[in-house]
Automatic annotation (TrEMBL):
InterPro entries: TRPC4AP (IPR022162)
Entry keyword set: Receptor
Keyword Glycosyltransferase found: no
Annotated source species: Triplophysa tibetana
Bilayer-spanning residue ranges: none
Name of the protein in its database record: Short transient receptor potential channel 4-associated protein
Record keyword Cell membrane present: no
One matching Pfam family: DUF3689
Domain of life: Eukaryota
One GO CC annotation: Cul4A-RING E3 ubiquitin ligase complex
Example of a GO biological process term: ubiquitin-dependent protein catabolic process
Length: 791
């Protein structure tokens, strides 16, 4: 021990000289000296004194610490840690403890503030000497023990006031901000993580506790199991609405599947292998079930998501000012200000809104606390909508859907749409998706995107999608079916009209209205198109399509693709997908297309957009191929014959050389190793082209064309070997997934049995079969022995 102390506290004179020359951060800036000090202090810190795992620095002579402090620029932190230790013994009244902690907090909080006023990534790469010194001398361990002491002793429990608990939590949070190693260390202590949840029962310490838990869970290697939290149901039921909204930030970490952060892991091959290894439900799935079993949980989230936000009448740009204040708040970590807000909200939790009529006469800086409340109400809704969205995509989807309908989530959001969700107060919300797709700095932008994601999850392949309409719009759908002499969709007939939207417009119609006003490259266009497309996905409904066609959606999409100059691939992909669902099997849609694309130049631009990225546009190609096949079997219908002869798009796809061109490229741009959820549709579109050819007895012609293409490109066997491997993967992937196979059947109107049969025919091992791929690969170029399913 003595040798350690001599080693650390300056027996080598040049250490003092270096400290003076290098300045305040010298003890902690790189090189062997920093490593040496770290190693020695690490040994000291983990030694046990009196059964307590703190740094031996707390037992070092104060004069020695002070002497070393002069050269090392420790700002008295080791001495303060020692005082903190000595003043927090079991019989202490904690008066001195709190004073020391305040002094330490002032030294550490400046570094925490600096990290959020700079680029966070760059800031984390720099050094925070005060925080580092505090942790190195055992300050973090001391605060953890101090907080947990009531659970660690059988003696009379010492009384810690709420302010002291808050200060301990705030200092720990500041340390976590500055040093990821502190966060990771705390995350390994399951006992401490569980203990933090017990602190959430105290409204006065709730906010600091929730913030710290969120940071810790964000780096925890293993996802926490919610059912391990003592009396979770009672804890959640004890929260007021603001606390519940903040708690959703924590829940979002516990119910979302972790992002592996590696594109290779996102391949379907890797995902299938992972699913094969993990047959039991994931922790995220178990946590979702745990939440759904809490009485009243979903109902309270629905109330939070749909409650009205009080609006100031003092200035037309009020929400713009709020965003500026939000950014100020985010850049300074004003926990005390936040705490004051939480206290005020607790005292007035019985009221949904407050009187703000006097705000106009109050200076802006004095209105700050009330304004922050409104911004945070928006942020609360972001967190709540995210949790609901995740639950909607989980295994309990039908159960969640039933509850969301019962608690009138959709009508509630519809009532908020114009006043809050899509206000027209500023153009600053228009963000280019490709440039800022991960930007969440603005509450308004975050709120809108999360709202659109929720609508997408709610509508996708579910009969409850008709809750997005009002009664008049439901009647309109019925009238469209009656006029076309087709039966109403069963889901429409079964819709409970007491649960649909109120007012003159339903939520879907409101969404279409704002969608048309967005600038061409707005990030919102991507999410808006996805939300509307989800309403159409599933079994094709002529009435649904006509409802949207009558509102000018097709012309709007074509304008964006052809005339707007939109360059965002994400936005264009979402519009291609939406256009495919809107036009599929609908002769009126193709007639409207031909009316809009009325020049050769426009059609050329449209084709160029499709051909520029088949991964993005292949769903539209599939729609055209399927629709053409159906229309060609309806030649007794005069309107169909007329459109077939006049529509440039159908005429283009009717030429076999164009279909073959698409087939060549679709097969060529994917292979088993690169298949993902994004591009697997290319495989299914190529299959659709071949299935329709098989139905007409032309499959051998198409396979031979693939062979000839290989030889013309001087790569014999390349396309067909690749396609053979892709189809083997297709069998492995789809034959064990009921949901995916149902989607294929509904979207194509081709029975899944025919999909399976066609793939089996193509994969036959008989080289004499005219419909088997193997028959068209010359023996020297065959590569069919290798297992394509190896990761």
């Amino acid at each position: 021990m003595q040798s350690d102390l001599n080693f650390l506290f300056g027996t080598v004179q040049e250490d003092e000289i270096m400290a003076t020359q290098l300045g305040p951060e010298s003890p902690w800036t790189g090189g062997k000296r920093r490593t040496r000090n770290r190693n020695v202090l690490a040994r000291i810190r983990h030694s046990q004194i009196g059964g307590r795992g703190f740094s031996r620095g707390t037992q070092l002579p104060e004069v020695l610490l002070q002497e070393r402090d002069k050269g090392a620029k420790w700002h008295g932190i080791p001495v303060l840690v020692q005082e903190l230790y000595e003043s927090s013994h079991l019989n202490s009244d904690f008066t001195r403890t709190q004073a020391v902690l305040k002094e330490l907090s002032s030294l550490l909080s400046m570094e925490a503030m600096s990290i959020v006023t700079e680029d966070r990534k760059a800031a984390q790469e720099s050094t925070f000497p005060n925080t580092y010194t505090f942790d190195l001398f055992g300050g973090v361990d001391l605060l953890v023990e101090l907080l947990m002491r009531p659970t660690l002793t059988t003696l009379q429990k010492p009384k810690m006031n709420d302010d002291l608990v808050k200060d301990c939590l705030s200092v720990l949070y500041n340390c976590c901000i500055c040093m990821e190693g502190v966060t990771k260390s705390l995350a390994t202590r399951d006992d401490f993580v569980s203990f933090l949840f017990t602190l959430m029962t105290n409204k006065k310490t709730f906010l600091q506790t929730a913030t710290l838990i969120e940071d810790i869970l964000g780096v925890k290697k293993e996802m926490i199991q919610l059912e391990w939290i003592p009396d979770l149901s009672g804890l959640v039921q004890s929260f007021d609405q603001q606390q519940l909204a903040n708690f959703c930030r924590i829940l979002s970490v516990t119910i979302s599947e972790p992002d592996v952060g590696n594109d290779d892991k996102h391949t379907l091959l890797a995902k299938n292998a992972q699913q094969k290894r993990n047959t039991s439900p994931s922790r995220a799935e178990v946590n979702q079930v745990t939440l759904l079993n809490i009485p009243g949980f979903i109902e309270r989230l629905c109330k939070l998501a749909t409650r009205k936000v009080s609006e100031a009448t003092g200035t037309p740009n009020f929400l713009q000012e709020l965003e500026e204040w939000y950014n100020w708040l985010d850049n300074t970590l004003v926990l005390d200000a936040l705490m004051q807000i939480a206290t005020d909200e607790t005292e007035h939790s019985s009221t949904e809104s407050s009187d703000e009529s006097s705000l106009a006469s109050i200076p802006q800086w004095q209105r700050l606390p009330q304004s922050m409340k409104i911004v945070h109400e928006i942020m609360y809704k972001v967190e709540v909508l995210y949790v609901l969205c995740v639950l909607l995509m989980g295994r309990q989807r039908n159960q969640v859907h039933k509850m969301l309908a019962e608690f009138r989530l959709i009508p509630g959001l519809n009532n908020l749409f114009d006043k809050l969700i899509w206000r027209k107060f500023t153009a600053s919300n228009h963000v280019v998706h490709g440039q800022n797709e991960n930007c969440d700095c603005s509450p308004e932008i975050s709120f809108k995107i999360q709202f659109l994601r929720l609508l997408q999850s709610f509508s996708d392949h579910h009969e409850n999608k008709y809750l997005l309409l009002n009664v008049q719009e439901l009647n309109e759908l019925s009238a469209i079916s009656l006029k076309a002499n087709i039966p109403e969709v069963e889901a429409l007939v079964n819709t409970d009209r007491s649960l649909v939207c109120d007012g003159k417009k339903g939520l879907l119609t409101r969404l279409l209205t704002v969608m048309k006003r967005e600038p061409p490259d707005s990030s919102f266009r991507f999410w808006q198109a996805r939300a509307v497309e989800s309403f159409l996905r599933g079994a094709t409904s002529y009435a649904d399509q006509m409802f949207l066609l009558k509102r000018g959606l097709l012309e709007h999409i074509l304008f964006c693709i052809i005339d707007s100059g939109c360059k965002s691939r994400d936005v264009l992909q979402s519009y291609f997908d939406l256009l495919g669902e809107l036009m599929k099997f609908n002769i009126d849609a193709f007639k409207r297309f031909n009316t809009y694309v009325n020049t050769e130049e426009k059609f050329k631009v449209f084709l160029n957009q499709i051909n520029s990225s088949l991964v993005d546009s292949n769903m539209l190609v599939r729609c055209i191929v399927l629709s053409l096949d159906r229309f060609e079997s309806q030649t007794e219908d005069v309107k169909v014959v007329e459109v077939l002869s006049e529509c440039c798009l159908l005429s283009y796809m009717a030429r076999v050389e164009n279909r073959l061109s698409f087939l060549f490229r679709l097969i060529n741009i994917i292979n088993v190793q690169t298949l993902t959820q994004e591009n697997v549709s290319c495989l299914n579109t190529s299959l659709v082209i071949l299935m329709l050819a098989r139905r007409r007895g032309k499959l051998p012609f198409y396979l031979n064309a693939l062979r000839e293409k290989e030889y013309s490109e001087k790569y014999p066997g390349c396309l067909l070997n690749n396609f053979h491997n892709l189809l083997r993967f297709w069998q492995h992937h789809y034959l064990n997934k009921d949901k995916d196979s149902t989607c294929l059947e509904n979207s194509s109107c081709i029975p899944f049995s025919y999909w399976k049969e066609s793939v089996s025919v193509l994969l036959e091992g008989d080289r004499t079969s005219p419909c088997a791929i193997i028959s068209y690969i010359d023996e020297p170029y065959m590569e069919l022995d290798r297992d394509p399913l190896e990761v």
